[in-house]
Amino acid sequence: MDLPVMPPVKPMLAKSVKKIPPGMQYEAKWDGFRAIVHRDGDEIVLGSRTGKPLTRYFPELAAVLAEQLPPRCVVDGEIVIVHGGRLDFDRLTERIHPADSRVRMLAERTPASFVAFDLLALGDESLLDAPLAERRARLTAMLAQARPPVHLAPATRDESVAARWFEQYEGAGLDGIVAKPLDLRYRPDARLMFKVKHERTADAVVAGYRWHKSGPVVGSLLLGLYDDRGTLQHVGVCAAFSMKRREELAAELEPLRMADASEHPWAAWARESAHETARLPGAPSRWSGKKDLSWVALRPERVAEVAYDHMEGDRFRHTAQFRRWRPDRTPESCTYAQLEEPVGYDLAEVLSAP
């Protein structure tokens, strides 16, 4: 492979803001795997956000990208899986599997799509120093004949349209809006774009925690909600505490520590076999391959208000943010019924937008 922009390339990133900034290009924020595609003739490389190759996990995409992209180009975009008219991140993560036979079976059962939103190189020309407006125009022309599962990400310069997308597209599984300055040059691994994400709050049971990697202070709190059967289900974690706050939390939660976790609602997590079929705290990551099953069980008596953006199935899609303790709430009152559900929206409508 010999391209003007060679792999690995870390993608340009966005920093969070509260409001949609004016005077920019606006796109939906896709909830998938960020991927930079390098094509040089028959060679295709799908690079992840961290630079690790994704090519072997999405063989069906490598084939269609070789058909639809120009012979020599570098394209930034998102790998997604569409199921039931919306994005399905759980099915996407299933593809990161060591067994090639399983990857290929899933490629047939739940094929992935690629949504392109930036162009880094074309032919022998690097476009890293070209302004966004030029890169977008050339990407649009390049993908004028694109057909599923390859898509050009919808974009607009109309702030009112972006505001409407922000409200509507969540129902299709997207999680916000990305705003890009029109004169922005492409700078790998730099946070020069802006993202606006949904934020809601929920009252959740704090039923355990993980230690922080630096030592005996709290790393993240394990959160639970009760389902219709009265079972406490793990829904995610909240983190991003200062080091001082981590120390304070360890002291605050010490009276709730259980010397014997056999009576804990999540006692099965102590068995490694339980991690083979469910996403549990400490479950081994397919990205790292490292197993860390350690967690501290707490009596499920404390309630915290946390902020989250949206749900993926029955869990918080991303790490929640701690807001405050809720001593006025009982753990049993923390149920799924409190969660706000976005109005459904067909992903096909998103992909057909201008």
Automatic annotation (TrEMBL):
GO MF annotations, alphabetized: DNA ligase (ATP) activity
Reaction catalysis annotation: ATP + (deoxyribonucleotide)n-3'-hydroxyl + 5'-phospho-(deoxyribonucleotide)m = (deoxyribonucleotide)n+m + AMP + diphosphate
A Pfam family: DNA_ligase_A_C
Tagged with keyword Calcium: no
Keyword terms: Ligase
EC number of this enzyme: 6.5.1.1
Residue intervals of the ATP-dependent DNA ligase family profile domain: 105-227
Protein's UniProt keywords contain Ribonucleoprotein: no
Family: Belongs to the ATP-dependent DNA ligase family.
Protein name: DNA ligase (ATP)
Organism: Streptomyces chengmaiensis
